[in-house]
Amino acid sequence: MPASGKTRASVFEVEIVEDDGDWSRVGNLDSLIDDAARAAFAAAGEGRKTAIVTVALSSDASVAALNERFRGKAKPTNVLSFPAGNGAPGGQLGDIIMALETLEREAAEQGVPFEHHLQHLVVHGVLHLLGYDHETAADAERMEAIEIEVLSKLGVANPYTGALETGTKD
After folding, report:
1. SS percent in the chain: helix, strand, coil, step 5
2. pLDDT per position as a tens digit, 54-69
């Protein structure tokens, strides 16, 4: 512990890169992404002192190519998460790649604001980089519970029920 008696604050950086697609029509894009990523890290970073996440804003075409190359699925998906490998610079958690057209389509289909769907998928991506997954029902339940909690703090309704969680139980 430093001499002041306070513990060292966590350092969390979000690097946003526009890779492909016309993301310019999304207002407050940087703050939406930054707020969601920081909230996810605060909820699930579990003692990490330093972390850097890169969020690449991309298109369906680019994400489809990555999805085929790394997952063997020749189609776009909403978000891909690539954890940093051995030898990555200190604190680098990894990369999150988002497909604009898929996010827009899904938000419209679900009847939710695009900005809320975007924040949900940023939270989802950060949790993947922190080691969470949804391969089993128990893992999915654990990950979804964290997503719901984080999103409620951002004023975003539960993406699985549409209800805004208040943290109170009746």
Report:
1. 45, 20, 40
2. 999 999 999 999 999 9
